[in-house]
UniProtKB/TrEMBL annotation:
Protein name: Xanthine dehydrogenase accessory protein XdhC
SUPFAM superfamilies, per database record: NAD(P)-binding Rossmann-fold domains (SSF51735)
UniProt-listed InterPro entries: MoCofactor_Util/Proc, NAD(P)-bd_dom_sf, Xanthine_DH_XdhC, XdhC_CoxI, XdhC_Rossmann_dom
Organism: Halomonas gemina
Occurrences of domain XdhC- CoxI (ranges): 22-82
Gene3D superfamilies in the record: NAD(P)-binding Rossmann-like Domain
Residue ranges of every copy of the XdhC Rossmann domain listed in the record: 116-259
């Protein structure tokens, strides 16, 4: 049998790798040996973590492990969270001579499926970034000023800070399908960013901080540059409705609350995880 793609073995333990990859939002799979019969390389409870290009820890080596890695990477390529149970006869399917039998539970974590890009590292931007930290989102934070980002930003998971003096270049470098919030320190920069984001045309959502009068002025200028009414209607302005409380924290809470319904969440049925009948078969 042809083995899986070459493994990049890392010295990091499976639990350390799992913790780091979850914090970073990197797609990965956790493989856990859940049953064992006869002679097997490892015992139930042995685990390994698999990414598209690396493996952390081991289930004992051999063709059986190659097949586990290959199965995990096939599941990862599907890009959805799921669990599956893989059965291996160590003398049949795996071509090994142990003669035992194992079941391996594969749990796939697709990583961060939502990317939020924030332009502006002022008071409101900082509070939005802080509030987004517990959410499973990748955050791309931009500011045209060289000293705008706080020291704590380097310690926040799934956060990337970018010095972005050129609005058009910053927008061009974004991945497709981002949720964008524009709240810089400069109205002209805000307008240039909204212009570039609308021209690009593939954002999942676009929000702009400011008053209704600011948006009316922007709308006139953006219409003059060729943007249609349909495109302009996709811009949410003002963002962060917080009643009478105009503190940065209150505005940030409202901005995040407005984003939550816009972020696509996979449908979850009444039954999730492994089929109960499959579990009964394995453990009976």
């Amino acid at each position: 049998m042809t083995p899986a793609a070459p493994r990049d073995w890392r010295a990091e333990s499976w639990h350390a790798a799992l913790h780091r990859l979850q914090r970073e939002g990197v797609p990965h799979a956790l493989a856990t040996q859940v049953t064992s019969a006869g002679s097997t390389p490892r015992e139930p409870g042995a685990r390994m973590v698999i990414t598209a290009d690396a493996v952390y820890d081991t289930l004992g080596g051999g063709t059986f492990e190659w097949q586990t890695i290959a199965a995990a990477r096939r599941r990862l390529s599907e890009g959805t969270a799921r669990m599956s149970l893989e059965a291996f006869s160590l003398g049949g399917r795996s071509g090994q001579c142990c003669g035992g039998f194992v079941n391996v539970l594969l749990e796939v974590f697709p990583g961060s499926t939502t990317t939020l890009t924030i332009f502006g590292a002022g008071h409101v931007g900082r509070e939005i970034v802080r509030l987004a930290a517990p959410l499973p989102w990748r955050v791309l934070w931009h500011d045209s000023r060289t000293d705008a980002f706080p020291d704590w930003a380097s310690r926040q998971p799934r956060l990337e800070c970018h010095h972005a003096p050129d609005p058009a270049a910053a927008v061009a470098a974004l991945p497709p399908g981002v949720h964008a919030l524009v709240l810089t320190h400069d109205h002209a920069e805000d307008r240039a960013l909204v212009d570039a984001l609308l021209t690009r045309g593939d954002t999942a959502s676009l929000g702009l901080i400011g008053s209704r009068s600011k948006w009316a002025s922007f709308r006139t200028r953006l219409t003059d540059t060729g943007h249609t009414n349909e495109a302009l209607a996709t811009v949410r302005c003002p963002i962060g409705h917080s009643g009478g409380d105009k503190t940065p924290y209150a505005i940030a809470i409202s901005a995040i609350a407005e984003l939550l319904p816009l972020v696509e969440t996979p449908e979850r049925g009444d039954q999730r995880g492994l089929d109960p009948a499959e579990l009964r078969r394995v453990f009976s």
